[in-house]
Amino acid sequence: MEITTPPLLCSTTGLRDRVGPPRAALTWIAAQRARHAALDTTDPALRPRTLDRPARRELAATLGRLELACGGVDLPIPAEHFESPGTVDRAVAAVLGAVGLLSELRSLGAASAEPIVCVAIGAGAGGDVLGALEDGAGREGVTIASLMGDRPAAAVDLAALARSGVDASRRIAELGGSLGCIRIDRFDRSTLAALGLAVPAASVASPGAVGLVDASEAPDSAAAWASAADVWNGPAV
Questions:
Q1: Model pTM greater than 0.90?
Q2: Is 11 exposed, middle or buried (0-12, 13-18, 19+ CB in 10 A)?
Q3: For residues 12 and 221, is the Cβ–Cβ distance under 8 A?
Q4: Helix-strand-coil percent breakdown of the chain, rounded to 5?
Q5: Phi-psi domain of 183 (left: phi exceeds 0; alpha: psi -120 through 50; beta: other)
Q6: Are 118 and 73 in contact (CB under 8 A)?
Q7: What is the DSSP track for 168-195?
Q8: Fewer CB within 10 A of the terminal residue: the chain, N end or C end?
């Protein structure tokens, strides 16, 4: 049976400082021969609450011209914002806004069939918070994957696993079908080795999990993306 490798998403997170605003970041991503992008919707130009319908149509058109699909949202919200009464409402609104944006981009033919939101939801988030996120994601057919838990779904931070000496393949096997996203933001030998273990493990235990690369802090973002893509897709890519 042929195994299809899930998409590897290239994130716009942090690229504004390197290559410019979102349109320039998406152009850069396309130039890396990526086929799927993850949007940072905390960027002022991509915030769902201020992105009206014409702007969403233009974003979809830009993705189409670049032959990119939006595979998800990479949402750098501090995890503790989901735990504090003073910030939780805004944090939940930001996630659900991202969910709504992905749903609309999909309806415009510019997003993957099963897009994800990757975000760190603090372990102290209440059941009502998690329930609201699960309900919103379920209505729109979008997966919310948390880097700090498994609700609504789980995400793993490969660099953190490598630093702590946790076996990536074992952790992925433990998460199984609840794993939605494998995030890579470091490109040292140990993290790439962990990615090499994660890919075959996920193909068995978590076949729907996507990869997400944030190359914004690497000395050479293009080389960082290429190194992760080589491992994810195989050296022939």
A1: yes
A2: buried
A3: no
A4: 50, 20, 35
A5: beta
A6: yes
A7: HHHHHHHHGGGEEEEEE---SHHHHHHH
A8: N
